[in-house]
Amino acid sequence: MGKNNEQNKKDEQLEKFRTDDRGKKMTTNHGTKVSEDEFSLKAGERGPTLMEDFHFREKMTHFDHERIPERIVHARGFAAHGEFQVYESMKEYTRAGFLQDPSVKTPVFVRFSTVAGNKGSAEAVRDARGFATKFYTEEGNYDLVGNNIPVFFIQDALKFPDIVHAVKPEPHNEMPQAASAHDTFWDFVANNQESAHMVMWTMSDRAIPRSFRMMEGFGVHTFRFVNDQGEAHFVKFHWKPLLGTHSLVWDEAQKINGKDPDFHRGDLYESIEAGDYPEYELGVQVIKEEDEFSFDFDILDPTKLWPEEDIPVKIVGKMTLNRNVDNVFAETEQVAFHPGNVVPGIDFSNDPLLQGRLFSYTDTQLIRLGGPNFHELPINRPVCPFHNNQRDGYGRMTINKGPVSYHKNSLADNTPETSTEEEGGYVHYQEKVEGRKVRARSESFKDHFSQATLFWNSMSDAEKDHIIQAFSFELGKVKNPSIQQQVVDMYANVSLELAQGFAENIGAEIPQTGGSGVTKSSPALSQENTNKKPQTRTVAVLIAEGFDGSEVSSILDGLKGKGIQPEIVSDKLGTLKGADGAKVKVGHTFLTGESVLFDAIYAVGGSQISEKTHKDAMYFINEAFSHFKPIGATHHGKKWLEEAKITNSPGVVHGDDAQAFVKEFTEAIAEHRHWSRQLV
Ligand code: HDD
């Protein structure tokens, strides 16, 4: 339970399943007290182990079965509990109960993930991120199973195994792990050009988020809202993080993966433990049924977004994540999401990717969680009553009383009984459908490049440069020159500037004509235009014995007052003394606290600096500078700036007045990165 949170209904339910083994007697799973847990039962001290040692057999059997299959995609994930509240009733559009009353707090469970990597892979990899939310509503569980990218690689679910096979490690040598920078992925891209738009996103900064707390979420598909009068609207869902959408830089991300492969989960876990609860606003874009064909893209095509400038995102509520899980396996690993878990008022569209997903998610849980009763696992149970005639299967926990397990019946007065629409029964939206049975792609799904160009046009210069560098990196790792050239030629259709930019870097033939002719841009797509806030940013304070005590402590207090988190870094752990006797406790050494693990650097120094500390501090500062991070300096720290020749660079702050320094440095930190910096 996060600090100051009341127990919600889901938490009360989970409480019944929690157990604390501390202070208890050890027993077998059958309750027999255990007298010895060091030595197996043997025939004589040096003799063979006996089969009748039931404690040994049980302990070992359980251990042998501790692992379950990891998710085929999104294996590496981390989750938290929280709550969702709507700002105002959405009655006009939907009858969904949890979207009606602003005073109602709906418990949620959110699992963030990478897509391609296995369960033990590093987190700051280039990839889409899963953003799956389970709302435990009074009308049943509603799952919004989205990503941090609003479009998808493919248009038809039949191709999902193909894209996943292509991006996963290659089967003949199982390399590379958690990376798309290899031949089969790019071969897929070049030969399945519907991927053009999403690949623009995965090559952009969006694919290396700074934090799960600083990325957007998207439902991707077009869904339907249906109101009490049975009227439907098409809808797309958005999560907007209040801290803004921010990213790492590629060199930094790669280093983080070595220094701290748990970087993203650590960041989420620590923020929640510290009471800095991550917050996301829920937004919806709504299109009237009669406007289905009013756009220059098909709204059923999952490779297309709805530009926010044309169809504004209406902010309708807020989600706060306020509690870490008690047990990662029981909750995060066993949670089972399904885009088909809907409540009355939320319905599907004919997006062929969504339609296929509706099959896949239950199917995968059957192999992953071992049978049809995974809905009984504590994390998956709805908080409202659930009754039907489904029975038996592996791991059944519910004890259904009575002889009746069929519908209709007279022995139980025909119960459990169905509900009318008015009583809350789910009635599918009665869309009129007719057509021939065909395996085909609609003509309206065939424009693969326009929105890829829209995305490119919307980027700032720095973002464009990062995209060119990402293509250059990924294709630089591709061994087959034909694949490299195919990708260059494909992206010439998106933007000649882009294709020429990376073709040159990878030694491919440089295209001379191209472009999709799209000149429009969508400023909402650029992270330059996101919220910029200093709160929760970490600052490495590089400090040594003999620092100026009173001023440093007033600056650190000033930064903390802005919600910034200074952490002391020095040559060894312990306590450091200032010139005036002030003391600070060291949190990290230069060995454990790399610059890549912090948002900003505050260089202080001191009167006693060894050659080694000097060298380490200079490395720290130069590396942070090359990652465009804010750098502040006072006292001796200013000499380090001079030595690095960065004193007058953008985002570098120094001064003698503590208050003015705090103000300026806070602004520099809020900016996140200083792209206008010239690197030498
Ligand atoms: Fe999926 C997991 C998101 C297309 C089949 N998917 C999974 C998770 C997320 C998404 C966030 C992890 C859930 C968790 O944390 O447990 N998937 C998406 C999005 C898609 C998408 C946003 C496109 C818009 N997925 C997609 C297709 C298929 C699947 C087209 C198959 C037809 N996805 C699965 C799966 C997974 C899964 C194999 C693996 C583990 C699981 O379901 O529970 O069934």
TrEMBL record:
Q: Which PROSITE patterns match?
A: CATALASE_1, CATALASE_2, CATALASE_3
Every copy of the Catalase core domain together lies at 27-415
Compositional bias ranges of the Basic and acidic residues kind? 1-24
Top-level taxon of origin: Bacteria
Q: What does this protein do?
A: Decomposes hydrogen peroxide into water and oxygen; serves to protect cells from the toxic effects of hydrogen peroxide.
Which major enzyme category is it? Answer: oxidoreductase
Q: Which CDD domains match?
A: catalase_clade_2 (cd08155), GATase1_catalase (cd03132)
Protein name, UniProt field: Catalase
- Named cofactor requirement(s): heme
Region (Disordered): which ranges? 1-35
Q: Name one GO molecular function term.
A: catalase activity
Q: Give the Enzyme Commission number.
A: 1.11.1.6
Name the keywords, alphabetized: Heme, Hydrogen peroxide, Iron, Metal-binding, Oxidoreductase, Peroxidase
Instruction: Tell me which family the UniProt entry assigns to this protein.
Output: Belongs to the catalase family. HPII subfamily.
Q: Keyword Iron, does the record have it? A: yes
Species of the source: Halobacillus campisalis
PANTHER family, per the entry: CATALASE (PTHR42821), CATALASE-B (PTHR42821:SF1)
Question: Record's SUPFAM superfamilies?
Answer: Class I glutamine amidotransferase-like, Heme-dependent catalase-like
Which spans of this chain does the record mark as coiled coil? none
InterPro entries per UniProt: Catalase, Catalase_AS, Catalase_clade2, Catalase_clade2_helical, Catalase_core, Catalase_haem_BS, Catalase_immune_responsive, Catalase_large_C
Q: Reaction(s) catalyzed by this protein? A: 2 H2O2 = O2 + 2 H2O
